[in-house]
Amino acid sequence: MSISLILFLVTLLGVDGCRLSAAAPTDATDVAAMQAIAKSTGADRSLGWGVKSADPCDGTWSGVHCDKDLGHVTAISASRAGLKGTLSGTDLVNLRFLAELDLSFNCLGDDLPILTRPLNLLTNLNLQSNCFQIMPKGFFRSFPFLETVVLDDNKVIMGDITEVPPCPALRSFSANNVTIWGKPPAYFGNTTLFPALERLSLARNQLWGVVPPSFGNNTNIKFLDISRQDDDGYTGKFTGRLDFVLGMTGLVEIHLAGNTFFGPLPNVSGLVNPKVFDAADNQLCGPVKFPSGVTVNVDGNPKIGKSCP
Asked: What's this model's pTM, rounded to 2 decimal places?
């Protein structure tokens, strides 16, 4: 067999004797959606999306990742990219294979996107530090299989949400400083709606009222931060006793500082592995008794060490 014939066969066949497959062409719907997103977010100007090529999967679109075998966009990473504009649900909904979306630390505004049909493959959503203003009803229904959500430091107004669909895979939800207002959002402590939730951060919002003793009972929540709610002069902050802590046996870190909780410090001996207890600047009372190895901050509680009424 001649050398030229051998080289031809090696080129034609894979090492296992199978024909090598070429990358699939990028799906036309993905191409149109990404071109629209490039314009609406300003990524065509700040990142040059679409300048060299209209194909988002040919390697010229910075931060865009694709499954070359399927020809679909699977991830967008454009943090700190100088984006200015809006993110339209009408465009986003057409990226059916999108699994990760990170547009954090930009200046995207208007409402958070709501989709006409859910993105069932999206697992990670990070929109931290933008200028989004409203979380529309149905937001959670647009992304039913999210695992992590970060919405910190937006102008989002997230009022009482009465209709929350199950999010079976959600492990981490962070919405610090986004103007969530109202009574404690009990649905986050519901194991039917959020059975996998491990991290919940709702600090520096406008939440107020008594956290029910049943909140979070038998959940998997390990990290809880509901510290430093903003008192608008009318509703106050979180208040009441810390009885709810006793039922959250998986808690490792507890951040409750800067509210108006009162009553005795909770007995955390029933928690499996407590490491941090921060309840500074409240109205708590009684002796400070925690297992060794727990970092405790109860500064700013004038009645600590004194008997409770």
From this structure: 0.89
Report yes or no: 223 and 199 within 8 Å, Cβ to Cβ: yes
- As a whole number of angstroms, the distance between CA 278 and CA 149 comes to 24
Give residue for tokens 């071109």.
Answer: 35
pLDDT of 217-270, one tens digit each? 989 999 999 999 998 888 899 999 999 999 999 999 999 999 999 999 999 989
**DSSP summary character for residue 270:** G
- Residue 99 in contact with residue 84, Cβ under 8 Å? no
CB atoms within 10 A of CB 92: 22
Q: Could you give the CA distance from residue 232 to residue 74 in angstroms, rounded to a whole number? A: 42
Span 56-72, pLDDT tens digits: 999 999 999 999 999 99
298: its two tokens: 């109860």
Closest to 207 measured CA to CA, from 185, 175, 234, 233: 185
- 158-211 pLDDT tens trace: 765 556 788 899 999 999 999 888 888 888 898 988 999 999 999 999 999 999
Are 227 and 281 a contacting pair, CB within 8 Å? no
- Give the residue from 78, 94, 172, 166 showing the smallest Cα distance to 127: 78
Residue type at position 23: A
